[in-house]
């Protein structure tokens, strides 16, 4: 079960996040999770939204370079040690986490880890064999 | 080969022939062109002072403005009644340059072109579609006479006059085996043919393409070869010196042979005018050895290239010039190193996704700083920062290797680089006024 994440190239200067989120807001697109990574003069804003392809279209039309990537939305307990467990399950299976960011879903009293991994299939296998749940795009919306 | 003995003459004999012809040309210019007589007198030089090929460096340069200053007939060495043709190029400054040809000049040019065509692999059995412009521009007629001299079946398809649809029909129905035109027109032809559902491997019979009259890159060569299913050769020429045919790529395609029996090619530092060694990058300078109506001594081409005098695998002994790197007018001097915007473009063309969306900025901190701004397109983009950074570094490393000076590559958002109608502002030099 994979989730589509929208990533946007931005220059590292004031007003870029505001512009990206304003465009999405005006299009009525809801952001479920977000992370900003920067390296010197540029960065990438990564977003999990309710309608990723529409988000890509409106951002591209505004001149941004946008990509859509497949990531995992891993459900974890909102309690100490749960992230460590997921990390060790993936690590033991030789799956590398390229990057990850997390948020807390109050409605479910759970936390969600959004992770980009180098081997999605393998990650899905090992996580499910350990009883760790993966959320679908629809389930993410219900959070 | 079209003229086997001349094309494979040992370099020493070629140099002897050049010296003999140079002496005659210098005397001929001095006696028949007041402009040259004046130049020689100002330089306190007499024709008999030219005793060796090295003495050539004593002769002052001829530049395009000299031709404009003597517009239209002032630089002719023959009376008008002996001139049988004129070509003319307009340029951007307003005053055109006019170039005259005697009957013998036309036949010499045809032989040079025929030799060049044969060098690119064209034979008398070929059907050659000449889609360069016919008229004041030298391209069309230059190729036309050369093809006929070689004995090829020549189709004067004339780019700009014959519509592209008709060009495609000729390619298809008349089974043209050679196409001669500008590289940009070749790409346009391929695109239009594709729209008509034509598959070049199936519908065309092309085997060779000879493209020139504008700068093009190796990447464009590959693109044209794929799109038209042919082997593409580069041709070089200047309208002030006959036209096309001064240089032609042989089957080795490692530079363009420049014919030593007709021209002396030098490379100079465009700033100081000093003569450079083979292998050094600089401005090409040509002296004609066999022209009647308008001989030129040390004519500055403004084209930047490198001369290679090493033996060529094709067996021809005449030196080669590499593909033109740029115009001396475009040259930037960065920390003392000559850099041409075209070199930056060649590196960027190799990176997938980088099209015309880049800009070169030169600034001065304490030293000169070269910045290359590249817009990030979807083809280059990655959501992983490490990959973006690796790409950025790769471009920096390749630029440093090619330019011999370090450049800082900046990834910017699309639309950041200002676009002006027509030509994009590729180079911004912010050093003006800074010491």
Query: What is the CATH topology descriptor of the largest domain in chain B?
Result: Rossmann fold
Give a quick account of the main beta sheet of chain B: strands, pairing sense, barrel closure. Answer: 12 strands, mixed
- What share of the residues of chain A does DSSP label as strand, in percent? 35-45%
Oligomer: heterodimer
Largest interface: A-B, 22 and 18 residues
Structure description:
- The complex is a heterodimer of chains A (143) and B (435).
- With 143 residues, chain A is an alpha+beta fold.
- Chain A has two domains: 3-69, VC0802-like (2-Layer Sandwich), CATH 3.30.2130.10; 70-142, VC0802-like (2-Layer Sandwich).
- Chain A contains five helices and six strands; from the N terminus they run E-H-E-E-H-E-H-E-E-H-H.
- Chain A has a six-stranded antiparallel sheet.
- Chain A is globular, with a radius of gyration of 16 Å.
- By secondary structure, chain B is of the alpha/beta class.
- Chain B folds into two domains: 100-326, Rossmann fold; 332-429, GMP Synthetase, Chain A, domain 3, CATH 3.30.300.
- Helix content of chain B is 31%, strand content 24%.
- Chain B is built from twelve helices and 20 strands.
- In chain B, strands 3, 4, 5, 6, 7, 8, 9, 10, 11, 12, 13 and 14 form a twelve-stranded mixed sheet that branches. Chain B has a four-stranded mixed sheet with strand order 19-18-17-20.
- In chain B, helix 2 (11-32) crosses helix 3 (34-42) and helix 8 (183-195) runs parallel beside helix 10.
- The longest helix of chain B has 22 residues, at 11-32.
- Chain B is globular, with a radius of gyration of 23 Å.
- Chain B starts with a helix and ends in a 6-residue tail after the last strand.
- The model of chain B has no long low-confidence stretch (mean pLDDT 92).
- The interface between A and B is medium-sized, with 22 and 18 residues.
